[in-house]
Amino acid sequence: MSETDTPYGTPFGDLLRAANDAGHSYRKLAESAVDPTTGVAVKYATLYRIARDEPIMLGPGVVGAVAAAIRSAIDVDERDVRKAAAQQYCGLIADDPFNASDGETSVVVVHAPGMGRKDMPRVEELLRRYAAGELPPELSGENETSS
């Protein structure tokens, strides 16, 4: 664990270090560090800071740019990069505690560290009902009243 390690781990930094270990310098990675949606670009110094588990100014475009850089070097899904950033910088865990994802559907639940399936019975019930085509009225709009 580094001196700058966070209480939530350093998965975002770990991904950048893996890209660097694969033979790509942070300067080389920065050439690909452009978010395809927003056009936000990050420089090698930002990539280096993330790899050293240091704080950065974080936004969706920055995470997308870092994901593009990492994906230019190693095989990783953009969603996994975004989940790693959320964990490291926001202290949130984004995963599938119900093992409900399959080839067609991804289930991602954002929760506090230490929470598991047993701590989220209402979420599990909602997913079960959704999969059965029984969307609750509060989510389907059927329960809305006009004033």
From TrEMBL:
Organism from which the protein derives: Streptomyces malaysiensis subsp. samsunensis
Protein name as it appears in the record: Uncharacterized protein
